[in-house]
Amino acid sequence: MRIDILSVLPELLSSPLDYSIVKRARDKGLVEINIVNLHDYSTDKYRSVDDYAFGGGAGMVMMIGPVYRALEKLKEERTYDEIIYTSPDGEPFTQKMANELSLKKNLVILAGHYKGIDQRIRDNLVTREISVGDYVLSGGELPAAVITDAIVRLLPGAMSDEQSALTDSFQDDLLAPPVYTRPADFMGWKVPDILLSGHAAEIDKWRHEQSLERTRRLRPDLLNER
Q1: Would you tell me how many other CB atoms lie within 10 Å of the CB of residue 7?
Q2: Is residue 71 classed as helix, strand or coil in its secondary structure?
Q3: What residues does each domain of the chain span?
Q4: Rounded to 5 degrees, what are φ and ψ at 154?
Q5: Which has fewest Cβ within 10 Å: 75, 92, 158, 211?
């Protein structure tokens, strides 16, 4: 898989994508992550990537030219399954979406910035818009890193225990059950007896019941969508 991330502040992406599971996947050759500095596609001596909005108003807007030129350069080399734009008003990012995107071969993630991007980019170049929540950040670099991490960890071989991803929260529209480790008794706080019983079927049943209970209590909306 290859993921190209277009950014006006590429430095924000280096640390999140150079550690842990994402780094392991890159080192194994499971994913190639290429960060594109949009300033490199500016045509003026100031390497500008933003300008004032037509019609006035507060804030600056990402210019169409640098984004267009960067995308055209990338598309000369390969065909992309999706060109994703990170935006507060995009489609809410979910585990189901991460699963779907992890099956793609080539992705572009355009990190939004300033007051947003020229609408013509969204109308003519972007194929999917994604939001990581109902709030606004200083830029789309962190959402791009979040989306990338969620996708890459699902690639076969990225995780030491591939079954682990299958039991994460949201994989079956339920929250994950509580987990415990040694010691079994810490200051009188005890691990549930069922987890020490060795009865696999009963443990699985208990975990499913706990998942249902936690989902009803914390995220009842997930059950309403089933």
Answers
A1: 24
A2: helix
A3: 2-152, 167-224
A4: -90, -10
A5: 92
Q: What is the pLDDT of residues 21-76, one digit of tens each?
A: 999 999 999 999 999 999 999 999 999 999 999 999 899 999 999 999 999 999 99
Residue 132 amino acid letter: V
Alpha-carbon distance of 93 to 81, in angstroms, equals 17
* Topology annotation, domain 167-224: Trp Operon Repressor; Chain A (1.10.1270)
Structure tokens at 101: 């995107």
Listed residue (180, 186, 176, 181) closest to 212, CA to CA:
176
What are the tens digits of pLDDT across the range 61-95? 999 999 999 999 999 999 999 999 999 999 999 99
| CATH 3.40.47.10 corresponds to the domain 2-152 | no
Question: How many CB atoms neighbour CB 56 within 10 A?
Answer: 6
213: part of which helix (H) or strand (E)? helix 200-218
Amino acid occupying residue 221: D
The pTM score is: 0.88
The CA distance from 123 to 113, in Å, is 17
* 104 Cβ contact partners less than 8 Å away, ≥ 6 residues apart: 1, 81, 82
The residue written with tokens 């989902």 in the block is: 215
